[in-house]
Amino acid sequence: MDIRQDSASRLYYALFNAIRALLVLNDVDYSSHKQMGVFYRQFYIKTEIFDKEMSKVLTDASNVRESSDYDIEFSIGVQGLADLIGRVDLSIKTIQNYINKQLS
Predict the structure, then answer these.
(1) pLDDT at res. 73
(2) What pLDDT is attached to residue 1?
(3) Angstrom distance (rounded) from CA 60 to CA 57
(4) Which residue range(s) make up the domain with 44?
(5) Could you tell me the CA-to-CA distances from 10 to 46, 68, 102 in Å, in that order?
(6) CB neighbour list of residue 23: distance below 8 Å, 6 or more residues apart
(7) Which residues of the chain register pLDDT less than 70?
């Protein structure tokens, strides 16, 4: 695995952990990535607390992580990685702002 693939995989985990922090507000914690994603989409995306784009970011980051970790032929270019960084960063900041508002 090269550094771009490793970085792409870690982006997913950064988003995953931000969502886990968000779910603490609901007294919910899932170790299963799939269960966490289902709850997140049901209670935060479908209710329009967050934009549908944030669901797409989670899906894209998850797909890239799985490909990075398990597909030996997978490669992500500099531009693709930069795009994913920007989208994940925006999602994490949005989640962080929401959590801060809920706690204040």
Answers:
(1) 86
(2) 65
(3) 5
(4) 3-103
(5) 26, 10, 27
(6) 29, 30, 36, 39, 40
(7) 1
Q: What's the pLDDT at 2?
A: 83
Residue type for position 80: G
CA distance 41 to 103: 21
Which residues, 6+ apart, have CB-to-CB distance to 83 below 8 Å?
none
Rounded Cα distance between 16 and 68, Å, is 16
User: What is the CATH classification number for the domain harbouring 49?
Assistant: 1.20.120.330
What is the total count of domains within the chain? 1
